[in-house]
């Protein structure tokens, strides 16, 4: 089982301002506790032992709240950014903390009700450099289309790389969960801001390096707008997400 993960938590959360002027987005209350705590519970249930959290905007508040991670059953370390490096740049900066082994990456403002062991098993079976969770959604284009071809290979993300894929494609959206091999760092430039979905994945696809999409129909929530935050809070109060601990997943 994969034992390391990264939470992307450096963003400013401008669409949630003025709330995010005083509280970073991952600490926004959802169902009675910060969303970040739900994320850590998800990772812990999936067998994760060590977590890297990247920090920038109001990062001290996150560091003070989470600490060393012991109370969540995790070892937590931090990767500070100044300036902010976007998703891909942030992952690249954390390379010394993630080491030379596969790892999981999750967005700090969204949550999926999936068993992490399932996507990890898919990733290992396919043998690609990266696997991303994908969902069917009537507003998939709003989030940036992820287009899959045969054997669930990712062929385009938000129209990149351009050109004819040469096969029929199925369209999905990306809810913010990756499984990555350490070899992906060789495709990332150090010290510059860039998005992993806008830059790294199109680069890999164009080079013929396999990136796969793991299709799920499970529930997903995000807190990127005030309306989405309110819906996420109601959801986690009324019908909270549940995750099967990895020990049960192995024996079921």
Descriptive account of the structure:
There is one protein chain. With 252 residues, the protein is an alpha/beta fold. The protein has a single domain, classed as Alpha-Beta Complex (Spore Coat Polysaccharide Biosynthesis Protein SpsA, Chain A), CATH 3.90.550. 30% of the residues lie in helices and 22% in strands. It is built from 9 helices and 14 strands. The protein has helices spanning 35-45, 59-66, 86-93, 95-98, 116-126, 140-143, 196-206, 226-238, 246-251, and strands spanning 4-8, 29-30, 33-34, 50-55, 75-80, 103-107, 110-112, 130-134, 146-148, 154-157, 170-172, 177-180, 211-215, 220-222. The strands form 4 sheets. It has a 7-stranded mixed beta sheet with strand order 5-4-1-6-12-8-13, sandwiched between helices. Helix 3 (86-93) packs across helix 7. The longest helix is centred in the last third of the chain and has 13 residues, at 226-238. The two termini are 16 Å apart. The relative contact order is 0.19. Residues 248-252 have low confidence and may be disordered.
């Amino acid at each position: 089982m994969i034992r390391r993960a990264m939470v992307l938590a450096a963003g400013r959360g401008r669409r949630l301002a003025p709330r995010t002027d005083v509280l970073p987005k991952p600490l926004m209350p959802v169902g009675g506790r910060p969303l970040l705590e739900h994320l850590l519970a998800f990772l812990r249930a999936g067998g994760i032992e060590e977590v890297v959290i990247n920090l920038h905007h109001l990062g001290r508040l996150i560091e003070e709240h989470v600490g060393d991670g012991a109370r969540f059953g995790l070892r937590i370390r931090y990767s500070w950014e100044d300036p902010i490096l976007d998703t891909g740049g942030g992952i690249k900066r954390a390379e010394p903390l993630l080491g030379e082994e596969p790892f999981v990456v999750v967005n700090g403002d969204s949550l999926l009700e999936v068993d992490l062991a399932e996507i990890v098993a898919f990733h290992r079976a396919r043998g690609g450099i990266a696997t991303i969770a994908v969902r069917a959604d009537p507003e998939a284009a709003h989030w940036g289309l992820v287009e899959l071809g045969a054997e669930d290979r990712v062929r385009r993300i938000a129209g990149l790389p351009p050109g004819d894929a040469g096969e029929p494609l199925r369209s999905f959206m990306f809810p913010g969960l990756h499984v990555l091999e350490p070899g992906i760092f060789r495709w990332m430039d150090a010290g510059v801001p860039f998005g992993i979905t806008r830059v790294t994945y199109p680069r890999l696809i164009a080079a013929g390096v396999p990136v796969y999409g793991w299709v799920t129909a499970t529930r997903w929530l995000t807190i990127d707008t005030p309306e989405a935050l309110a819906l996420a809070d109601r959801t986690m109060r009324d019908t909270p997400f549940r995750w099967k601990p990895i020990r049960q997943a192995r024996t079921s």
